[in-house]
Specification:
globular, single chain, ten-stranded mixed sheet, mainly beta, 46% strand, 1 helix
């Protein structure tokens, strides 16, 4: 009787592992508007007293050209474009059919007026406002060590 129960447990475990391998993998950190995907919003950790942080993410699967016009998060009092296309306002063109990556080496979103230090392995709420797509509620991760400035 015990051998039968043990065999059944092994078979059930094998079936579960096989099913898990065949099941499509969920992609973490993706959020959707009506016509684009926001993939993996993230920022680096900041030290005490930091007033800004760099926010990066990727926009893809864009079926209609749109603009990112506002970003809100409880961790900062404002947001603006930084990097290559720096501007005090937020008006980022996201062209149809193309991937738009916000990276530290290119254009990114600068969170201004940080209310506290961003800590590694934390997740914070993020509201992204698009001209055509409206509001997308997302989260951004703090995945890396303090940025070197």
């Amino acid at each position: 009787m015990t051998r039968l129960i043990r065999r059944r447990g092994i078979l059930q475990g094998g079936v579960a592992i096989s099913a898990a391998m065949l099941w499509p993998r969920a992609r973490a950190c993706e959020f959707f508007s009506t016509h684009l995907r926001i993939y993996e919003p993230w920022a680096r950790a900041t030290g005490e007293g930091a007033t800004t942080a760099v926010l990066c993410m990727t926009f893809d699967e864009v079926t209609q050209t749109d603009r990112l016009i506002r970003v809100e998060t409880p961790v900062a009092s404002g947001a603006e474009l930084g990097g290559v296309h720096a501007a005090r306002t937020l008006d980022l063109l996201i062209p149809q059919g193309r991937e738009t990556a916000l990276t530290e080496a290119g254009t990114y979103i600068r969170l201004t007026g940080l209310r506290f230090a961003l800590e590694v392995a934390r997740e914070y709420p993020l509201d992204l406002w698009f001209e055509k797509g409206g509001l997308v509620q997302a989260d951004f991760d703090i995945k890396y060590n303090i940025a070197i400035t």
